[in-house]
Design brief:
85% helix; 177 residues; mainly alpha; 7 helices
Length: 177
């Protein structure tokens, strides 16, 4: 339905944002900073443990402040994470740069939960209750279709202009969200 256009745009932008961080965030850690695979396991465990506390707090924030404000805050955090990934290589202290990257990785994993704000937004604007399920399905389809094209485009940007260009483009996407 046309009434749900904003939800579909948000699903489109989330698909792009998601794939940038799934593909290129770890790539910065591996290619630019030479981090081994076990680091990712440790970061995912840290994010999972923090998520036990973060997800209920996120739900509370959505209830208290509303989807719009939570999504706006998410966009600001995503833009900051993009800056961290894109420019951490310019920090003279390698331990500080890695700490920043690890924080960006964990923060991004936690912020994937903000997707619930998009879903509750759709539930609030639904004209009919039976519209919610097919609209959520279309949102997931849009999200996945976009996320399949982003690695190719991002890879070309990385090769041609360097890894900061990928994250500056992602920051632009975050600004649109």
């Amino acid at each position: 339905r046309r009434a749900y256009w904003l939800y579909y745009v948000l699903a489109f932008l989330f698909g792009a944002r998601k794939q940038v961080f799934i593909t290129f965030g770890p790539w910065v850690l591996v290619k630019v900073f030479g981090q081994p695979a076990y680091i990712f396991a440790q970061l995912w465990i840290a994010a999972a443990i923090l998520g036990v506390m973060f997800q209920p707090a996120l739900g509370w924030a959505i209830d208290r402040f509303g989807e719009r404000r939570v999504l706006m805050a998410d966009s600001l955090f995503i833009a900051a994470i993009c800056l961290g990934y894109g420019f951490s290589h310019r920090i003279d202290s390698r331990p500080l740069a890695l700490a920043l990257l690890y924080s960006c990785f964990v923060a991004d994993q936690l912020l994937f939960g903000v997707n619930m704000a998009r879903d509750t937004y759709l539930s609030k604007i639904a004209l009919k209750r039976e519209d919610v399920s097919p609209s959520l399905s279309l949102g997931v389809t849009i999200n996945h279709a976009v996320s399949m094209s982003v690695p190719s485009l991002g890879g070309l940007m990385w090769v041609e202009f360097g890894h900061p260009s990928v994250f500056m483009a992602a920051a632009g996407v975050a600004a649109l969200m």
